[in-house]
């Protein structure tokens, strides 16, 4: 993250003796990215974070295979039809992915086990419900509309309050605010559509007692369950610029033009080989002769994965798209409004409609997305032909 935080107790100087009340030393753990040449945080544990007593390989859950998007076609997936079994980690149903990112959907009402993704950052979008993220850094309470970004290597678990529905974006590297929103020193600039005040991070340590505690670890080699001698939630304090945080889509401030603006104005995060965008309620384009709806477009370098999370998508009326839908428009296909949508919106503007209520989360990837079993099990087979009706 672009700014420094301190939580709990830390010594005045880094890497000096920091003693427990009984006179023993707290154990330092430096969490650092990119070979310690990028953001990092320093955590102080009551016990050694290296002490494990057991390790066992774990078989990957079924449904993790990907298939090419062939024949090439636009797709529509109805997540409303998915019923998952498990928690928000092991119950994820794979929708799409490539070597840069994997996109999954999960519904759960049960806590996950402790989990560490050592392959990359995760960005979990909460579509519905409330959930508590517990981690070595502390606690974040999240609800509908929250993006929760969890850095690589963070031991954490998800504790739902009732049923919760999420879209999980698993990166092969790090997820960050777009560089164009930040100064050379990492502060959000005035033109950015959100800022530091909109981000929520853990406010105090989370201390849990326990011995022989299992943690599911994902690496490029597969899944392992490590058993730690002591509970990893034993951090009395930490400081640095690397930590989990939450950002609510309602706090995104749309950038508007007189005529229709392209998707980069909605960009919220960037990852290796992909971007995440937030489509939020905003004023309609206000040029007197504007067409306040997306033009037909062909993003020749990207696949467009769009999760419709709220509002009314007038441009897609008649396509079957509704809240909970996901559309996939691959490179190689030109897409745009449904037939008759342009005329309908121009008519609505003439009758005094000045805003749009649409809300969506979009992931644009720069390599083709393959399809997972979760998506194929809830596909609308007639979607590709809706522009020709």
UniProtKB/TrEMBL annotation:
Record Pfam families: HgmA_C (PF04209), HgmA_N (PF20510)
Residues annotated as binding Fe cation: 297, 304, 335
Keyword Metal-binding: yes
GO MF annotation terms: homogentisate 1,2-dioxygenase activity; metal ion binding
Cofactors: Fe cation
Domain Homogentisate 1,2-dioxygenase N-terminal, residue spans: 24-248
GO biological process: L-phenylalanine catabolic process; tyrosine metabolic process
Domain called Homogentisate 1,2-dioxygenase C-terminal: residue spans: 288-387
Binding positions (homogentisate): 313, 335
Keywords: Dioxygenase, Iron, Metal-binding, Oxidoreductase
InterPro entries: HgmA_C, HgmA_N, Homogentis_dOase, RmlC-like_jellyroll, RmlC_Cupin_sf
Cellular component GO terms, alphabetical: cytoplasm
Keyword flag Oxidoreductase: yes
Active site, renumbered: 260 (proton acceptor)
Family assignment from sequence similarity: Belongs to the homogentisate dioxygenase family.
PANTHER family, sorted: HOMOGENTISATE 1,2-DIOXYGENASE
Name listed for the protein in its UniProt record: Homogentisate 1,2-dioxygenase
Organism: Nonomuraea zeae
């Amino acid at each position: 993250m672009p700014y420094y935080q301190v939580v709990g107790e830390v010594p005045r100087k880094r890497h000096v003796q920091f003693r427990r009340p009984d006179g023993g030393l707290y154990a330092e753990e430096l969490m650092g990215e990119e070979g310690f040449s990028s953001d990092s945080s320093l955590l102080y544990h009551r016990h050694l974070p290296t002490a494990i007593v057991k390790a066992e390989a774990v078989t990957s859950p079924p449904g993790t295979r990907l298939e090419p998007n062939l024949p090439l076609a636009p797709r529509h997936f109805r997540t409303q039809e998915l019923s998952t079994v498990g928690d928000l980690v092991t119950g994820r149903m794979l929708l799409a992915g490539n070597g840069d990112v994997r996109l999954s959907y999960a519904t759960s009402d049960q806590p996950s086990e402790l989990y560490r993704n050592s392959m990359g950052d995760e960005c979990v979008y909460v579509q519905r419900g409330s959930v508590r993220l517990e981690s070595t850094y502390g606690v974040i309470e999240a609800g509908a509309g929250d993006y929760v970004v969890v850095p690589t290597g963070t031991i954490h678990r998800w504790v739902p309050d009732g049923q919760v529905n999420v879209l999980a974006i698993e990166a092969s590297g790090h997820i960050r605010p777009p560089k164009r929103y930040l100064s050379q020193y990492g502060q959000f600039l005035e033109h950015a559509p959100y800022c530091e005040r909109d981000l929520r991070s853990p406010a105090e340590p989370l201390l849990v007692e326990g011995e022989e505690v299992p943690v599911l670890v994902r690496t490029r080699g597969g899944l392992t369950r490590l058993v730690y001698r002591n509970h990893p939630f034993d951090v009395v304090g930490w400081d640095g610029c690397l930590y989990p945080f939450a950002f609510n889509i309602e706090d995104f401030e749309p950038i508007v033009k007189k005529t229709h603006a392209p998707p980069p104005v909605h960009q919220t995060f960037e990852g290796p080989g992909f971007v995440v965008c937030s489509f939020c309620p905003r004023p309609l384009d206000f040029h007197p002769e504007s067409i306040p709806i997306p033009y037909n477009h062909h993003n020749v370098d990207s696949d467009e994965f769009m999760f419709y999370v709220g509002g009314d998508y007038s441009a897609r009326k008649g396509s079957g798209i509704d809240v909970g839908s996901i559309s996939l428009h691959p490179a190689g296909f030109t897409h745009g409004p449904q037939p008759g949508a342009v005329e309908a919106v121009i008519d609505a503007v003439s009758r005094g409609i000045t805003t749009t209520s649409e809300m969506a989360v979009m992931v644009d990837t720069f390599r083709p997305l393959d399809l997972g079993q979760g998506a194929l099990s809830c596909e609308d087979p007639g979607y590709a032909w809706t522009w020709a009706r």
